[in-house]
Every structure is written in structure tokens, then in C-alpha cells.
Amino acid sequence: MSDKRVKKVVLAYSGGLDTSIILKWLQTTYACEVVTFTADLGQGEELEPARRKAQLLGIKDENIFIEDLREEFVRDYVFPMFRANAQYEGLYLLGTSIARPLIAKKQIEIAERIGADAVAHGATGKGNDQVRFELTYYALKPDVTVIAPWREWDLRSREQLIAFAEAHQIPIAKDKRGEAPFSVDANLLHASSEGKVLEDPSQEVPDYVYSRTIDPESAPDKATVITVDFERGDPVAIDGKKLSPAALLARLNELGRANGIGRLDLVENRFVGMKSRGMYETPGGTILIAAHRGIEQITLDRGAAHLKDELMPRYAELIYNGFWFAPEREMLQAAIDKSQEMVTGSVRLKLYKGSAWVIGRESPNSLYDQELVTFEEGAVAYDHRDAAGFIKLNALRLRTLAQRKRKVGDVKRP
Question: Can you tell me the distance from the alpha carbon of 50 to that of 60, in angstroms, rounded to the nearest whole number?
Fold first, then answer.
């Protein structure tokens, strides 16, 4: 427990059992006023029950904040990340990671607005989310008091949590009394599942875990062909229809779901030092990253494209580890955004039984010159004989090394 006296705390509140227990624990342990904040990030759940649950636990209406953040989430967080083609450890599309800085930012904004001196979250002491929340808190309000109940309380088992809830008249759904088979976090970009039945990485993920995608083997036998239009690196339309950022991602999710696209079974390296196994479903994001790479193929210069690919792992790691508001992420974002100035055009994709691939791309800013690359003789001023000098110049150091090797032999140095 913090030594600092807390008067008012803003809690990231889902309305579920765990955060409801945390709400009551804050009231009883800190004897402070609790303000709840519930974010709609497109998790697919109705949020009014969270309001009613908070009211039931004694929270005044003026201290209950529920905000629809779907457009801001996609426009200001998801799309900038996809401009970089970010994938943590080459695979994970960072669906949970990218949501945390927005939630934490809104908590700090509310705290500033209402004069709260503390913020709290429901992340456990073993996971990455505690880091992501708290790095954002401190980046935006360095003097804020942070309360992390899972690191403070002595409720160490499901039975103790249930007993605490019963002792304080916190409603418990019937399915919450038993051990949950796995935990789920969801938003408009993805759904992630981990824990319990998924903890053994040698065992296949059970069918009942999947919620955002149909089984690829059961997907339609006929491919779906779509077109995605881009402007300056961001998708703006599907099949010629302009859509808002959130609506566009939702539409890609529908298409991905119907074709079984976006499943990922991953053992990843957490920032806190352990490996964990998770199952991620990112249907729309999987289509989007294929489309974005497709339009970049014809609009990015080789040097810019290759530099972006070199920067991407570092950029993705910063997001995964919670450094969205760190200067190095902002510096990388500026470089990435600069690279997207000419990334405008259309990409045609085929969606089929778990896969999404590009079958065509065009852009008014294309660097692709068919006359230049054709095997047929064209009118382009390209002299094949020029390649000889190019190759010899690039081979100079290799030839020098080879000559030295002949001179001194292959004798190993002592």
C-alpha cells in the first residue's frame, strides 16, 4: 500500500468481477473516493452493465465515465502502428499492447479534470499490462500515485476473490464461481486468449477458444476478392466505399472472420522476463498488413523500404513494452510517417481459407516501370553493358580479400 494519502482514484473499470472487487478493495483499503472509467474499444460488449454495476457498488453518476474510443483508437493508435507494419517477434500484431496507452491516457485526462490524485488498474504482477499502464501514467503525469491492487493485496486465489465478493455483496455470475478455462482480452483490432487450458504449448488450442474467426477448414470453398484503397499509408476505402477508420477495420474483421483469417498461436517473450503462450485472432489486421505491404511495394523506394524493415522490430518492441509515449517511439513514428507521403493507391487481395494475399496493386505514385523491367527490348535508355562495371566495383573488396587469401594461404592464426 502506498504511503501517500489518497483522496480520489480513477480506476480502469471493465465492470467484470475482478475490477468490481478492486473497486470495493480500494474503498475499504484506502478509504478514498473511487471514480470509474470504462473505455469502448470495440470489445463487442455492451457497456451499460458496467455503469449499473458501478452504481450498485456506490459510485455516484458524476464519478462514472464511459467513453466510446473506437474511432480514436483506430485512427490515432492502430493506423500509425500499421504504417510501420509492426509485428512483435515477427508475428504478433500487438492488439492488446496498442490499446493500453489510450486507456491510460484517458485515465490521466479524467484525473486532471476532476482533481484525482491517483489512478489504478487491474493488471496482474506477472504480465506486461502493468508496465504499459504505468509507463503511460508516469509519462503523462509524473507525480501521480499509482495503485496496482494485484501487487498489494493478499487475495491469492480464486476462492479468496469469491469470498471477498460475497462478503461485500458484489454480484457474482454463476459462471464466475468456477475456475475460468482461459482469460480473454478483446478490442476492435483483436481478441487474445491465454492461461489455464492454453498454458501447455504442446497442446493444440481447443476449438471453443476461438471467437473472432471461423475454422479455416470450414471457410467457403470460393475465394473472396476485395480492394483496399490507401491514402498516405492509411486505408480509406474497401471496394471503393469510403469508411471511417473504425468502420473500415470492422468491415475487414467481418471479411477476415468469414474466411478464417488471422489466427496466431504464439509463445512470446514477455517484457517482465518470462515466456507465455497466447492465442491471438486479428482478422482485419492480418488483411490490412498484407494490403499495406502490397501498396508499399510499388510506392516506396528501396532504401526507404529496407530502412523501414530494419526499424520495425525496434518500433514493435517499444509498443509491446509500453513505451508509446517515449521520445524514441515518437522519433521512429516521424520517420515512418515521412515514408508514407507517397503511399497512396489501391490493392486487390484474395481471401481464402485462412490466408490473405495480394493479387494486384496500382498507384498514381508508383515507382514500378514496366518498360524498364521488361525482358523485351524497350525504349528505355538502359545499357546492359553498364552492369559489368557495376558488378566489378561491388566485387572489388571481394577480389582483394581473395587475393590476400591466396597470398598468405589458409593457415589459421595462433
Answer: 13
Q: Is 12 left (phi over 0), alpha (psi -120 to 50) or beta?
A: beta
Q: Which three cell numbers stand for residue 399?
A: 577480389
- Phi then psi for 83, rounded to 5 degrees? -60, -30
What are the two backbone dihedrals, phi and then psi, of residue 136, each rounded to the nearest 5 degrees? -70, -45
Cell of 324: 508509446
Distance, CA of 387 to CA of 240 (rounded, Å): 43
User: Distance between CA 23 and CA 120 in Å, rounded?
Assistant: 9
Contacts of 26 (CB under 8 A, 6+ apart): 9, 11, 32, 34, 120, 147, 149
- How many degrees, rounded to 5, is the angle at CA 198 between CA 197 and CA 204? 100
Which letter, b or e, does each residue of 335-345 get, where b requires 16 or more Cβ atoms within 10 Å of its Cβ?
ebeebbebbbb
- Report the distance separating Cα 104 and Cα 133, nearest Å: 6
Residue 155, amino acid: L
* 191 vs 213: CA distance, rounded Å: 10
Rounded to the nearest 10 degrees, how much is the dihedral formed by the CA atoms of 92, 96, 99, 105?
Answer: -120
8-70+96-179 classified as CATH 3.40.50.620: yes
The residues that are catalytic are: 18, 100, 129, 183
Question: Sign of dihedral through CA atoms 39, 44, 46, 49?
Answer: negative
pTM of the model: 0.94
Superfamily of domain 184-362: Argininosuccinate synthetase, chain A, domain 2 (3.90.1260.10)
Q: Where are the domains of the chain?
A: 8-70+96-179, 184-362, 370-407
The three three-digit cell numbers of residue 316, written as one number: 514493435
Angstrom distances, CA of residue 334 to CA of 35, 274, 324, 330: 35, 32, 13, 6
Structure confidence by residue, pLDDT tens digits, 309-321: 999 999 999 999 9
Nearest to 231 by CA among 357, 349, 341: 341
pLDDT tens sequence across 205-240 = 999 999 999 999 999 999 999 999 999 999 999 999
Tell me, letter by letter, the H, E, C secondary structure of 100-122: HHHHHHHHHHHHHHHCCCEEECC
Quick one: 157 exposed, middle or buried, by C-beta within 10 A (0-12, 13-18, 19+)?
exposed
